[in-house]
């Protein structure tokens, strides 16, 4: 049947089209809600209110708050962390520390990460997602840094990327997330030098 001139065709009934701007607003609201109240007290109602949408908009995208958080954590992991390519082991380690320090000092991350780690102890699903977001990508970057350093002759064959990651990021995480201390001027430079020395030992 021909359409009447001047009329517009209505979208077919069925599954609603999910607007990307609404999805982005919900994701932002989840991070803010996690930082404000933590995972245990977080609710779909609170997320929807903070995002300026109805609860239905959230449930169209995720079946529960756990599914929502797992999706967000996984998305962070997918973004990844590019491996530095400064041309020296010290430069690469210093660059990694700079990126890690920036992320760990972010006001939302400083609240969300410790809370998710607590929840990870109770939920294998959250533990797997957090591991993917916080560890797997960093292990890949550390492997690249170590491999390049070995190729340049700065590290011996068989240098362990996992040990490298522990030495590089471990002290920084302890200071910023556990102790919640400041970073004095020159701290990252000194930490980079110490990590490189330990890797070469």
Number of strands: 0
Helix-strand makeup class? mainly alpha
Distance between the termini: 81 Å
Number of helical runs? 9
- Could you tell me the mean pLDDT? 84
Low-confidence stretches: 11-15
Order of helices and strands, N to C? HHHHHHHHH
Report on the biggest sheet: none
Helical residues, percent: over 70%
The value of Rg in angstroms is 22 Å
Strand content: under 5%
**How would you describe the shape?**
elongated
Defining traits:
single chain; 201 residues; mainly alpha; 9 helices; 71% helix; 0% strand; elongated
Short account of what is shown:
This protein is mainly alpha-helical. It has helices at residues 20-41, 44-51, 55-59, 65-79, 89-105, 107-120, 124-152, 161-178, 187-200.
Describe this entry's structure for a reader:
This protein is mainly α and 201 residues long. Helix content is 71%, strand content 0%. The protein has nine helices and no strands. It has helices at residues 20-41, 44-51, 55-59, 65-79, 89-105, 107-120, 124-152, 161-178, 187-200. α1 crosses α2, α5 (89-105) packs across α9 and α8 packs antiparallel against α9. It is elongated, with a radius of gyration of 22 Å.
SSE layout and pairings?
Layout: H1 20-41, H2 44-51, H3 55-59, H4 65-79, H5 89-105, H6 107-120, H7 124-152, H8 161-178, H9 187-200
Helix pairs in contact: 1-2, 1-6, 4-7, 5-8, 5-9, 6-7, 7-8, 8-9
């Amino acid at each position: 049947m021909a359409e009447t001139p001047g009329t517009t065709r209505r979208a077919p009934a069925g599954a609603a089209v999910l607007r990307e701007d609404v999805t982005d607003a919900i994701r932002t609201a989840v991070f803010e809600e996690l930082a404000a109240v933590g995972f245990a007290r977080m609710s779909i109602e609170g997320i929807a209110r903070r995002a300026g949408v109805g609860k239905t908009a959230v449930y169209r995208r995720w079946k529960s708050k756990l599914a929502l958080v797992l999706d967000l954590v996984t998305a962070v992991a997918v973004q990844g962390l590019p491996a530095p390519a400064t041309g020296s082991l010290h430069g690469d380690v210093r660059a990694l520390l700079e990126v890690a320090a920036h992320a760990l000092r972010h006001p939302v991350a400083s609240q969300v990460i410790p809370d998710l780690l607590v929840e990870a102890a109770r939920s294998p699903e959250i533990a797997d997602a957090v591991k993917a977001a916080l560890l797997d990508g960093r292990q890949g970057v550390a492997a690249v840094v170590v491999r390049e350093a070995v190729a340049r002759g700065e590290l011996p064959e068989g240098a362990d990327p996992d040990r490298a990651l522990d030495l590089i990021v471990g002290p920084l995480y302890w200071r910023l997330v556990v102790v919640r201390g400041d970073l004095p001027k020159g701290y990252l430079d000194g930490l980079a030098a110490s990590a490189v020395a330990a890797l070469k030992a």
